[in-house]
Amino acid sequence: MARPSIVPIALTLDDRTGYTLWAPPWEEDGEEWQAFLGSTVDPGPDDDPEAGPTAVVHLFPSPAALAAFCRTSTDHDLADHPVWPVVSTLGAADLTPDEEHRYDLDGVYDIVAENPDRWAVDELAAVLDVVGRLAECCDAATGDDDEDDEDETGFEAVADLVSRPEAAALGLGIDAYVGRDGEQSWSRLGTAIDELWEDVLEDLDDHLDWSGAGTVSVDDYPTAAEEAESRTAQPADLDDEDEDDDDRDDVAPAARPAAGSTAAAPAEAATAGIRTIRSGSGLTASPAAVAAAQEFWEAVGILPVELVTPAVSGVTLRCYVEDRARFLGRDGQVFVFPSPVDLARFCAGDERHDLSDIASWPEVADTDVMPLPADEDRYDLTELTEVLAEVASGAGGLVTHAVLVQPAEGALDLAEYAGLPRVQQLLSAGSPLGRAVARGDAEPTAPLSAEETPALAAAWDDVVADVATTLVSRSDVRR
């Protein structure tokens, strides 16, 4: 059984391609579960009044739109998955499916019309597998609990097709369709597809949400040809700098999905090729540990801070003296440590710095409480760069101005301490970026538009570049 993970996938149907997420089977309490990015919706005013809730899978017109939704929404069936906190930080490049996780439902007729080869058999097997999984998850989420109805399903055509012996033989590969008997089996499979495929798609129709959980319209989806051309122009290998997957963190077993989710009852097959994922932060601590540590740090008036930039990431300390930010550093340079342990070792030493004269510093130097930053004191400057790029690439309207506020707060404090006039100007009330940040305070739910974002992104790049000149990585602390 593979460890819990979430995989980006693409479905092509009715000449449009939608992007979503699939959580392959994971085990909990002796049972296997799987799920898609979806939710359960109540019938609308134009629907059958006797119809019950419907499980739907949310689809998006681009990886950027999918990434934006993941960053801003927790009202879906993957929110409790063990790796969701990591997924919610990923950009479009990480949420772009590889070729093995792209499923062309429109192309099924063309596949069975040709003589079988290894690639055709593998592609058809993958499409029928994902269709079966979609049906299994959606059916389990909205199924009747009455034991007398256990054999009933809302996906009769899907169940009929995948149960055919010639369809089941797809799992054996091309060898199942070699020779006279194999040719006849392939022919029978083609006949079954001709008879049932339209019904299969009709079974799925009510369970595929092409509105992206209400964030887009069908017109926002490119045609299959446009999507293929875009992928040719922009190779899928967008994340070369993150090729070292071996360093990515393991995750804990999943909690059991809540009732009404798109998580299916026991899944039947293990999966291969599952990507694992990580976040930009190198810090791990339980909420309870952070809360306990905060009691001490708030009492001394010096707080741990996490900073993430392209070149330097880690933890430091900050306090305010006469309402001006002061960091652990010297001569306008901020000392940044790889971990709270490294920072604690430095604090216990005797090197002079700009916090040495703070009245409570002796308590800091003498404590054994780890410097664990609270969420409001974590400033990921690179994440905002990625978010703005996603909005400019097609996720306009899916990201709110609120994302600007916390990173800008951290950048302004650093600029104040280090004396960075350009950063202060770029974030001033009269600048475009400053006005956008102010709107994030006043109207946090106001969406960012694709039109305004390129200018904001360019200004933010300048902010990050200047801030980076003030950060000094201190990995020299004696262990």
How is this structure best described in words?
The chain is of the alpha/beta class and 479 residues long. It folds into 2 domains: 7-247, no CATH class; 280-479, no CATH class. It is 38% helix and 15% strand. The protein is built from 16 helices and 14 strands. It has helices at residues 63-72, 84-87, 108-113, 118-142, 156-163, 165-168, 179-205, 224-233, 287-300, 340-347, 361-366, 381-395, 405-418, 421-426, 432-442, 453-468, and strands at residues 7-13, 16-28, 31-36, 38-41, 54-58, 102-104, 208-209, 303-308, 313-321, 324-327, 329-330, 333-336, 378-380, 471-473. The strands form 4 sheets. It has a 4-stranded mixed beta sheet with strand order 3-2-1-6, covered by helices on one side. Strands 10-9-8-13 form a 4-stranded mixed beta sheet. Strands 4-5-7 form a 3-stranded mixed beta sheet, with helices on one face. α1 crosses α12, α5 packs antiparallel against α7 and α12 packs antiparallel against α16 (453-468). The longest helix is centred in the middle third of the chain and has 27 residues, at 179-205. The two termini are 39 Å apart. Residues 144-150 and 235-280 have low confidence and may be disordered.
